[in-house]
């Protein structure tokens, strides 16, 4: 049947709405990451309560299910010691001679443009366990990463 002969209320021609995919593996979070999850849930609950548009409500509910799942599965990682590169540390390093600073965080907290990188990212996996002064392999170079310092930022 042609779309021209459907009623306006027919929704069978619309794209199906799938659940948001949950990243594989553990859901490690920093204290900040857990706060961000809690804030996002509160924000979505308020949007649902204030909305009267069924498609918007359905979208907010889908997002809420994702964030509630992330909240329930969150594994708060203890504050790192700062003696080596660990989850939650801020790392000052050079990558192929270019100085950079990144903080290693959970998947949902990651925002590379803000200097927050997931612990699952290849760069953070290459640095995990490294200490100040270490030269570490990355890509095809054996000494691509030099750890300049490791700090523990405020949680």
How many H/I helical runs?
A: 3
The ordered H/E elements are EHHEEEEHEE
Distance between the termini: 58 Å
Please describe the biggest sheet, giving its number of strands, its sense, and whether it closes into a barrel.
5 strands, mixed
In CATH, the topology of the largest domain is named Chitinase A, domain 3
Structure summary, number of beta strands: 7
Name the CATH superfamily classification of the largest domain.
Answer: Transcription elongation factor, GreA/GreB, C-terminal domain
How big is the Rg? 21 Å
| Overall domain count | 2
CATH class of the largest domain: Alpha Beta
The spatial strand order of the largest sheet comes to: 5-4-3-7-6
Task: Give the uncertain stretches in residue-range form.
Answer: none
Please state the average pLDDT score: 90
Task: Indicate the percent of residues in helices.
Answer: 25-40%
Domain Transcription elongation factor GreA/GreB C-terminal: 83-138
GO molecular function: translation elongation factor activity
Pfam family, one: GreA_GreB
Protein name: GreA/GreB family elongation factor
Which tags fit this structure?
155 residues, Chitinase A, domain 3, 2 domains, translation elongation factor activity, elongation factor
What does this structure look like?
By secondary structure, the chain is of the alpha/beta class. It folds into 2 domains: 26-76; 90-151, Transcription elongation factor, GreA/GreB, C-terminal domain (Chitinase A, domain 3), CATH 3.10.50.30. The protein is built from 3 helices and 7 strands; from the N terminus they run βααββββαββ. It has helices at residues 31-50, 54-73, 122-127; strands spanning 27-29, 74-76, 90-95, 98-105, 116-118, 135-138, 141-151. Helix 1 (31-50) packs antiparallel against helix 2. The longest helix is centred in the first third of the chain and has 20 residues, at 31-50. The relative contact order is 0.16. The mean pLDDT is 90. InterPro entries: GreA/GreB_C_sf (IPR036953), Tscrpt_elong_fac_GreA/B_C (IPR001437). Keywords: Elongation factor, Protein biosynthesis. It holds the Pfam family GreA_GreB.
């Amino acid at each position: 049947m042609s779309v021209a002969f459907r009623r306006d209320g027919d929704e069978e021609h619309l794209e199906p709405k799938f659940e948001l995919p949950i990243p594989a593996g553990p859901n490690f979070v920093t204290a900040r990451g857990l706060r961000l999850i809690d804030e996002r849930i509160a924000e979505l609950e308020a949007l649902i309560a204030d909305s009267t548009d069924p498609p918007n409500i359905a979208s907010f509910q889908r997002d809420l299910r994702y964030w509630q799942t992330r909240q329930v599965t969150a594994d708060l990682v203890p504050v790192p010691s700062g003696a080596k590169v660990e989850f939650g540390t801020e790392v000052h390093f050079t990558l192929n001679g270019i100085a950079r600073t990144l903080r290693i965080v959970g998947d949902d907290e990651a925002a590379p443009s803000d200097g927050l990188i997931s612990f699952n990212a290849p760069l953070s996996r290459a640095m995990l366990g490294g200490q100040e002064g270490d030269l570490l392999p990355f890509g095809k170079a054996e000494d691509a990463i030099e750890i300049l310092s490791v700090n523990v930022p405020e949680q």
